[in-house]
């Protein structure tokens, strides 16, 4: 009884999405009542989720229809680029010089090779950028249809996982070197090299970053049923094949997360600590990202321009009104 009947497939409408959104609205209302201050963030994240997934679904539908390797590669690069921007601009409270390019390189060097090797060898899909039907496994036909143009959803899952891991590792590493640098500087003062002095901090940063992935992998199947497996089952796939697919994907996620965290931490180490074994605090930026500073400047400029225009118009109207009143007062009585 591995195969589900064909009529058990789920077809969701926007009304179903609205009903699901009611859970977020309930959380936002509860946050308002309790004064938690996260209601606005919940609503903003929910709106972003709806808009972004709707746009991505439209784009991916067109990409899948083109049946082009270049289109799939372009979407994969775009996902990495957007993931890099999200990591650097929104998730990291501290940044180091040239961090955008370092994170972009780390994500490309982790998600692209892992996805290609995993799809080609672990999933046995040829060509790796376009899955075929499994002729020897009829029960997985629906699952292979769900994974049409497999690199795109898989790279998306890898990017989504690496974003959180990179943010945790970089934030912790830079925070220790910025706020709690005394211990590291003591090691350096007693003759330790920059590698020896920063190795404990780097190890702890990587441990913290990879702990959620390890915990997630350890509870799969016993406590949690992952979303990919659930979606495959709801789509009518074999339960056994969906479970095996989820195993492969989790192993790929853990590998990509580990590689990306190590690469970004190494970049942070090389940039923040120079060859003279000094901590360069001038290379750590604690301000909000330049994009948001530019946005705030534009908003302030627009608000100032609108206020100035309104005051100018209001002053002109008042002046004309006073002139009209003066002309009426100067008229001779009949």
UniProtKB/TrEMBL annotation:
<feature type="transmembrane region" description="Helical">
    <location>
        <begin position="42"/>
        <end position="64"/>
    </location>
</feature>
<protein>
    <submittedName>
        <fullName>Uncharacterized protein</fullName>
    </submittedName>
</protein>
<feature type="transmembrane region" description="Helical">
    <location>
        <begin position="70"/>
        <end position="88"/>
    </location>
</feature>
<feature type="transmembrane region" description="Helical">
    <location>
        <begin position="12"/>
        <end position="30"/>
    </location>
</feature>
<comment type="similarity">
    <text>Belongs to the UPF0014 family.</text>
</comment>
<feature type="transmembrane region" description="Helical">
    <location>
        <begin position="100"/>
        <end position="123"/>
    </location>
</feature>
<feature type="transmembrane region" description="Helical">
    <location>
        <begin position="154"/>
        <end position="174"/>
    </location>
</feature>
<dbReference type="GO" id="GO:0005886">
    <property type="term" value="C:plasma membrane"/>
</dbReference>
<dbReference type="InterPro" id="IPR005226">
    <property type="entry name" value="UPF0014_fam"/>
</dbReference>
<keyword id="KW-0472">Membrane</keyword>
<feature type="transmembrane region" description="Helical">
    <location>
        <begin position="248"/>
        <end position="273"/>
    </location>
</feature>
<feature type="transmembrane region" description="Helical">
    <location>
        <begin position="217"/>
        <end position="236"/>
    </location>
</feature>
<keyword id="KW-0812">Transmembrane</keyword>
<keyword id="KW-1133">Transmembrane helix</keyword>
<dbReference type="Pfam" id="PF03649">
    <property type="entry name" value="UPF0014"/>
</dbReference>
